[in-house]
Amino acid sequence: MKKLHLxxxxxxxxxxINAQNREIPVDTIVTTNHSTQIKGVTINYQAQxxxxxxxxxxxxxxxxxxxxxxxxxxxxxxxxxxxxxxxNGGPGSASVWMHxxxxxxxxxxxxxxxxxxxxxxxxxxxxxxxxxxxxxxxNPVNTGYSRMVEVDGELPDRxxxxxxxxxxxxxxxxxxxxxxxxxxxxxxxxxxxxxxxxTRVMGLSAALQESQWMYLNGVxxxxxxxYKVIRVGGPVSSALNLPYxxxxxxxxxxxxxxxxxxxLIDVLPEVESYTLDKLIPALAxxxxxxxxxxxxxxxxxxxxxxLSLESIxxxxxxxxxxxxxxxxxRDQGKTIGRLDSRYLGIDRKDAGVRxxxxxxxxxxLHSFTPAINHYIQKELRFKTDIKYxxxxxxRPWNNDNDNTREDLRRAMAENPYLRVLFQSGYxxxxxxxxxxxxxxxxxxxxxxxxxxxxxxxxxxxxxxxLRNEDLIQANEDIRIFIESTSSKGKAAKY
Length: 494
Prior knowledge:
By secondary structure, the chain is of the alpha/beta class.
């Protein structure tokens, strides 16, 4: 009897251990139905959230991607509605940001400028684009609940996921499977990518066309990161920061009165022209610039940046962004945010060349993390013990052979339907609005397709949609973009 009791206990122990293994299902869907108000109209929609595999060449799952698919219901020709695939960046960031603060049917409970409020939670988004398009929020490997999957008892080689071209290749394949499963081949298709997501969707635009035979109507670049500028550095990369410095200084009222009294939109064209016509050539001269020109440029940079003449000269006209975030409000004992320079931080000491922490990111994680975890399990009814990775382990990341800017140009040349919308916040110090403009200018050196690009700027930062006024306008800009890219029976030809 004692022996039988021990066997029973052992059996229960094994069962209990197995029950507690934290594993994400490889291929599953949870479906819920909802209703909301968008632009004063009642919108019925279905949410499908779950996982879909990534397969290797032998047809075995090597990873599974967590996604949420919102589809408007009770309408005619639903299979022909615009379909938008949404990615955030990092690399290594989940799709939480745009999902729960921008285009989706629910948004964070935050104040009108984007700061966290308690109790944490979410509310209906009356500005969501779900009235005009269905949306898929996708989490690449190791973000959100997306994970690699063991094959024959071993995890696959990380290198096939974590790199510019590797990321593009498996996501293109995954999107094709998704479109086939959901029977959405008839739909006009769009990509939207924020930050590193900008690099990702530029590359995907060509990969989808050339390896999956899937053609797009539009690409939306939200605060895009163009690493052909950022990683290269040099005079152009450095000079392009100046209009952002002006924006941040204007917001914090650090410009001379002659500029401060003007509206931001009236100040920036002057600074942009100076950057292109004067600052880039000056920085290109390096240590061989004349003393007079160096002083003239330093005086102008101090005027446009809110920094002291001494700080400009001590940095040889080349102001690191980290120094700017530390120095602009040093006299007030404050630092400013990297991704959104409206946010303020407090350092251990006022001395130094960089802030101790990112004031804006800590604020966002403050509000987003509890909200997305609560939302997925309560509203979407997806239950798991797997941790939702706001930022996941994707390093080292292979940055070799970054041809994504050219990929986008080629995709546009091959597809007369394809248009591009850039959206940037003036107070974004990481992927600045002027960098975004520069990227837009550089995609097509011929200038033959420049009428197929649009740029929209907003008085906020990297996640410009956190500011309620910009949330309204930015979603409306996407609606207009979708309408403008509708073929309406027009043939795709030049």
